[in-house]
Amino acid sequence: MRLHAVCARCGAALTAASGGTGHGATGGGGRWACPLHGEVQPCWRAIEASYEAFAEHLVLSRGLPTWIPWPLPPGWAVADFGCVGGEGEPARATFATCHGLTPEDGGVSLVVVTEEPGVGLGAHLADVPHSDPGRAAWDQPPALRLRLDGASVPLWPVPQTLVQGDDDRTVLAGEAQGRWLWVVVKPAEAVLGLVDRASLGDASGLGPELVAVTFGSPAED
Length: 221
Ligand SMILES: [Zn+2]
Description:
Shape: globular
Structural class: mainly beta
Number of helices: 3
Radius of gyration: 17 Å
Strand content: 35-45%
Largest sheet: 11 strands, mixed
Bound molecules: zinc ion
Number of domains: 1
Distance between the termini: 32 Å
InterPro entries: DUF6758
Number of strands: 14
Strand order of the largest sheet: 1-5-7-8-9-13-12-11-10-14-6
Helix content: under 10%
Order of helices and strands: EEEEEHEEEEHEEEEHE
């Protein structure tokens, strides 16, 4: 088992809920509790990013895309990922975090979340209080467009006033394939480098090409 159960809304490690077996993602029948949020559907997150863990993730997240920059630029790596759902239930959310270097900004991280309404994973990873992107974001023109599997998807900035804690990140939200799409870029100004350049692909559709993907820390340059 290379994935462990955490809370989608706060990231806390989950324990077996009373009456549940707390079995792993493939054990079936598990019921899980967060110390803060009570019984929740687990987010199965990689203990350590690896090809083998990602293969388990793709089984659990079947039916949902996992977006990563694609082609993955040289020196970039998939550092973290997870899926809400599984255990015989349809997946409701996925995320992947990729790290790499850009000429303008040095080390950059990019988190992409796809989720159904109300899951709260995107808000947690973006550190904003609302589980779904607020309407405030839609009152302005889109900040950028990302290419997702060849389609152009508009993304709106989540107002910086909603972003808690460490401010050095840009949070964007939009909709793709009928689900919320969250994009978190660190540092904040690195989002400018994404305009016109970023192209995301669904890792669940990659097949043998995944063998060439680096997992874990980005390669040293
Ligand atoms: Zn929680």
